[in-house]
Amino acid sequence: MKALLTLVFLAALLSGVVHAQGRPWRAYSPSDSSFSVELPAPLRKVMSFQGEHGANLEPDQQMKGASCYAAIETTPRESRFGIIVFKDKYLRKIPMSRKEFVTSLGYTFLADDDEAQFLKVPVLVRNNGLLGQEYLYVKESEHSSSLYTRGRIFDAGSSFYVLVYVGRDEKDLTSPDAERFFNSFRVRGRARGR
């Protein structure tokens, strides 16, 4: 009986049926320990992460100027949690204001930039000493794939952090998993909100 239960659990895990609620969460940090966040799966460096596409592991998809991370729960398509970090040395090369850069990050990482009308007006959020903007992107479609993304963008002075949560539906964007992910994020060192 015990062996049968183990096989059923493994089959469910491999098919993506077992979700974060059944797994223990813990705090993870990248190798440079610049931030920490609670996740249901280990934090992994990936080539890129976008709300529309999730985590990308292909070397030719590497983002220049950013470090991208994801919690890959079962397969790359099942990654709901992503973090993109832009460091100051990259930011100095960008020919736009910090405010314009934040706006472009919202369109690039949270939304489908061809259909920006589905990106809701950002609201200000405070999170563990950081001041940022929160965005919701809800695109429901009968003919193509629907997309539900919630993101927070923080200007921490020497770095920008983009937190991305990809929901299964609109209600999922305010789920306990989403709240825990966003509210557990902490920048270590000299972070300050702008």
Q: Short description, anyone?
A:
The chain is an alpha+beta fold and 194 residues long. Helices cover 21% and strands 34% of the residues.
Question: How are the SSEs ordered, and which strands pair?
Answer:
Elements lengths: L1 H14 L10 E3 L6 E5 L3 E4 L1 E3 L3 E3 L9 E6 L9 E7 H4 L6 H13 L12 E5 L2 E10 L7 E9 L3 E9 L8 H9 L1 E2 L7
Antiparallel strand pairs: 1-2, 2-12, 3-6, 4-5, 6-7, 7-11, 8-9, 9-10, 10-11
Descriptive report:
- With 194 residues, the protein is α+β, with helices and mostly antiparallel strands.
- It has one domain: 3-Layer(aba) Sandwich (Protein Transport Mog1p, Chain A), CATH 3.40.1000.
- Helix content is 21%, strand content 34%.
- The chain contains 4 helices and 12 strands, in the order H-E-E-E-E-E-E-E-H-H-E-E-E-E-H-E.
- The strands form 3 sheets. A 7-stranded antiparallel sheet has the order 3-6-7-11-10-9-8, with helices on both faces.
- Strand 4 and strand 5 (54-56) form a beta hairpin.
- The protein starts with a helix and ends in a 7-residue tail after the last strand.
What is the number of strand segments? Answer: 12
The share of residues in extended strands comes to 25-35%
**Tally of domains:** 1
Individual helix count: 4
**What would you say the CATH architecture is?**
3-Layer(aba) Sandwich
Show unreliable segments: 1-21
CATH C-level class is: Alpha Beta
Which keywords apply here?
3-stranded antiparallel β-sheet; alpha+beta; 21% helix; disordered N terminus; 194 residues; Protein Transport Mog1p, Chain A
